[in-house]
Amino acid sequence: MTKRKIGVTELVLRDAHQSLMATRMAMEDMVGACEDIDQAGYWSVECWGGATFDACIRFLNEDPWKRLRTFRELLPNSRLQMLLRGQNLLGYRHYEDMVVEKFVEKSAENGMDVYRVFDALNDPRNMARAMAAVKAVGKHAQGTICYTVSPVHTVDGYIKLAGQLIDMGAESLALKDMAALLQPQPAYDIVKGIKDTYGDIQINVHCHSTTGVTLVSLMKAIEAGADVVDTAISSMSLGPGHNPTESLVAMLEGTGYETGLDMERLLRIRDHFAEVRPKYKEFESATLVDTDIFSSQIPGGMLSNMESQLKAQGAGDRIREVMAEVPKVKADAGHPPLVTPSSQIVGTQAVFNVLMGRYKVMTGEFADLMLGYYGECLGERNPEVVELAKAQAKKEPIEVRPADLLKPEWDGLVTTASTLDGYDGSEEDVLTNAMFPGVAPKFFAARAEGPKSVAKTPAQLAAEQAKAAGNQTGITGPVQYNVTIAGRSHSVAVEPA
Amino acid sequence: MTKRKIGVTELVLRDAHQSLMATRMAMEDMVGACEDIDQAGYWSVECWGGATFDACIRFLNEDPWKRLRTFRELLPNSRLQMLLRGQNLLGYRHYEDMVVEKFVEKSAENGMDVYRVFDALNDPRNMARAMAAVKAVGKHAQGTICYTVSPVHTVDGYIKLAGQLIDMGAESLALKDMAALLQPQPAYDIVKGIKDTYGDIQINVHCHSTTGVTLVSLMKAIEAGADVVDTAISSMSLGPGHNPTESLVAMLEGTGYETGLDMERLLRIRDHFAEVRPKYKEFESATLVDTDIFSSQIPGGMLSNMESQLKAQGAGDRIREVMAEVPKVKADAGHPPLVTPSSQIVGTQAVFNVLMGRYKVMTGEFADLMLGYYGECLGERNPEVVELAKAQAKKEPIEVRPADLLKPEWDGLVTTASTLDGYDGSEEDVLTNAMFPGVAPKFFAARAEGPKSVAKTPAQLAAEQAKAAGNQTGITGPVQYNVTIAGRSHSVAVEPA
Fold first, then answer.
1. Which one, out of A224, A283, B119, B146, has a CA that is 20 to 30 A from the CA of A377?
2. Do B250 and A289 touch (CB under 8 A)?
3. What is the set of domains in chain A, with CATH numbers?
4. The pLDDT value given to residue B221
5. What pLDDT is recorded for position A339?
6. Domain Pyruvate carboxyltransferase spans what residues (chains A, B) (predicted)?
7. Please, what is the Cα angle at B377 between B372 and B380, to 5 degrees?
8. CB-CB under 8 Å, B213 with A247
9. Nearest to B492 among A255, A295, A485 (CB)
């Protein structure tokens, strides 16, 4: 029997450590695994995105562009893959088209191959320019469907969106399930529907493992025709992260599908990161499995954000009210998927509504969302709330693509960057400062000091273990010390009170 | 569409804490969840077995029979389920038939409903008497297939074994995957094969989650016709334990199957055990997912046993040799599944072979295994090694059912028990001492002192957390003390060296 080959995208260098250890992994902890990753037979290696870029300059004093070049050098046989937030690039606002083109050009020059282009609202207009730019430099443009669950999101709607992405020239499609909400049956139905409607377009499926159910969703997606699935090596898997790569391989054994991955390489990659993971333990979340999101629709990260906002206001006990408010706010906004930045915008407004009365005070971002400045959602926006937004923000709603309102800004960005201490004159630096203007200046100034890992050293880990072991044993009898004070020596016994 | 109802067996009261925290959970930590468990709509509640019985008397000073009666009282609407090691009962040797009957009678009287009867070698003769005894008292006899992977274990072989169990009067069948080896395709093939061959006999599927793949196996088993699957509430799930109950519910949403479980009850059960779990943290294994067993065929518990045996001999560096020896020893013994007690017997012999030369020294247990004293395996035993066993053990091989060689022993067991301090005169006590003669006398003598939990108290946990927080801050500068010695006061500065 000829088995159908299922491609695998390895996430350990990007989304796995982003989800499990707050994106803190330093390049020095990845280098040692690269040869095995490069030879294991993956379809692609995800290694770059907004949070890794941000963490590089914010916490690790590492140049993210240099990190990309190092990956290119160490992974010569691999497709390097990144996550690109459409017209937002890696930042939190819309950029004018020339900036989008510059970013794609420079990242391609530095080694990127596959661009997974997405938009938080699933608005194809926000993805179009980035997709076109990727195609213009001859790289792989992957159009993305962000999966969510709402009264207006249907299998047919996702199939229609797939068609729009294909019309925009997508070389492949990604079904992206950032909240582990994608259950087996819809996974099957969406993939099958796309294949039946549009023929053999490549479909990649990306699921988190938070709810404990999505390896089954990958199985059903594969049965429905999915071509590539995303996993993370087992020692960097599960919890808010992803399904384990080795488990996927085992899952398909004996079926009509196979990954072709080299298991010996996988085990070496696993062992490498099993050594690395404890060094970042302080950044790990304790969540192992959480199915609450199926009823609350609230991703874990969004929930903890809202909790800290409430606590800051001395209203930590009102989280249940806020959780009940979120679906209302989400519906008023036209049912956006809850992913950066829409999750923060909806969550903060829900907190404001509970604390100050519904829409008594609107954040600027929520008003923008209601007025179309982030793009279009699938659902209709509540017209009454749109009126309130107009009044509070003193702005008119727009129907055009948000970036159409932007003036050319590249030259200004170059000028701004050139005033900064440590700016190296490159277009890469201009882009870094454009996307992270609050962080980049400090990074440029300190860059010459070189990377600074936030991981524990082996010595620190050993000391902690020894201390823990000591704590367990405990001190039961008196301990003698010789203490010399004012030239006289005394024997002192110390014991637990 | 009418959905097919899938029953669920909740494992949290037995196998979940056995697998995750060395069976240490005290009854007091279970009581609070019982009402929700009883009302959630499970097919059965597994709550008793060899390791929980052993842990009760060895570590918790708790009477396991009393625990059973308490479950009966607190779970009036539930089928209580236990795991019974056939002719071994809950102990480590074969018992004469009357003891088997007494055990089944007394456990039924105390409240047991469903008996999952298994044998480590899958020898139906070792299960027959226990099954018959269960039927004689009008309870549910579930015949068990222990799943393993070997050159002689085939889908057809498992289907044949299912037929033997049905012929013995099994009211249902369990497919038991103690090592998380059951991949989706064989899960489907075995269940489908049994249903196609024997019609609508109830099939329960029990998988551990160690390899990260078995929730998919449960899905495929359900698609093939499985009726009941085993899971553990999410806060006591994953790792060497089991798939999360809530994830199973989510997995089936939208499909042609449903569990009918009450999600609000499940969330309360989850929250209860989320509070309990940290109290037993010191007993937890760090393993989250481990797919090594697919290549090594060695369950995790067996591996750590062999490692400690080697270390005790100052040969900790020879574990790779021992791992390579295990498949050879297993093959010589006729490919027994590796589960208690065969895993220990094969593992120890592999250690002996590496340290002293192959079969130069045989353990008494391994010789017995080679000579048929544990029953028959599916594969043929290596005749050369059988000859060595005869010579070393000075015993002849047997072909009869091992328990056929035993003389009536009940009266002797009563006499032995009646000599013990604290023996309460009950047949339950006779059985306790018969199964755990090395532990029961001490337990009887101390029983009046009542249960002793080994869990941390909330106060201890809080103190540890405070200490950990203190450790993180660390002492960076000198601390001043006033020390009075021999009537004179001194100011002393202490700082880290």
1. A224
2. no
3. 4-283 (3.20.20.70), 293-403 (1.10.472.90), 414-446 (no CATH)
4. 98
5. 85
6. 6-267
7. 90
8. yes
9. A485
